[in-house]
Amino acid sequence: MFVKEKMDYQGYCIRPPSEAYSILLQATLGCSHNKCTFCDAFKDKRFAIKDQSIWEKDLQYAEKYCKHQDRLFVMDGDAFVMPLKRWEWLLSNISARLPWVERVSTYANAKGVALKSDDDLGRLRDLGLSMVYYGVESGHPDVLKRVRKGSDPEKLITQAKRLKKAGIALSITVIVGLAGREDSLEHAVATGKLLSEIDPEYVGALTLMLPPGSPIYDEARRGEYQLPDQVSLLAELGVMFANTNLSNGMFTANHASNYLPIRAYLPQDKDKTLALIKRALEGKVNLRPEWMRAF
Predict the structure, then answer these.
(1) Kind and range of the H or E element at 280?
(2) Residue 11, SS3?
(3) pTM for the full model?
(4) Domain 17-285, CATH 3.20.20.70 — does that match?
(5) Tens-digit pLDDT profile for residues 193-203
(6) What is the SS3 assignment for 137?
(7) Extents of the domains making up the chain
(8) Is the pLDDT of residue 103 over 70?
């Protein structure tokens, strides 16, 4: 009987937009934190590290069928939290068996980074971990507490700077609309200032959507959370962007959730992008229609 070879993917899997054409290797299941009120991506999974035999089969598949993909993304939600020894095996085998892969990346949160020493971070970089997608979401302490992020701004900044010092590139995720209507602009200012303090290579801004079944969806139904309207979300994005100063980075809002796609190199595109947001607020730019938005 013929059995088609394939990678082992369990449950709902997510990856950043920029990893659309990458080799996707699911090394872990779910998220070790899994308490954020805005996320329902891993509610159906208990966090676990997959057995090495599964990794072995996935690498065999990639070795055979993925020779035209030069990037590899390690899933699930915060695979960075894996112990160093597991990472050492995985990265060493990626390097040895997929020598054409030029970039290896993964998701991480501050808690997972804090569990590793500076030497551990340097070791990961030396073995080929090139970039980390780092979930910040907000720079406002009250917002972070409200959404149960499990970190405060100081910890987020400290752990991000440790990654940078180790030579691991940072792509930081922030969420427009996360603070609701009342604290929208305060969230925007604080987030922009936090991003400026970290000074990452990349920023990816998403716009909050309310996934049914998530705690924030239930909060909205009870009237405890109010999602800003389209104009307010654009204004929030504009304030966040205006308060973000990068020495040499890219600020994107190209996720399917965003009304206004943005791709700006900073500092050189600052004024041009602020002008674009202003025209959008004046109704002079076509926005992504609601039916085309997605998680």
Answers:
(1) helix 270-281
(2) coil
(3) 0.93
(4) yes
(5) 999 999 999 99
(6) strand
(7) 17-285
(8) yes
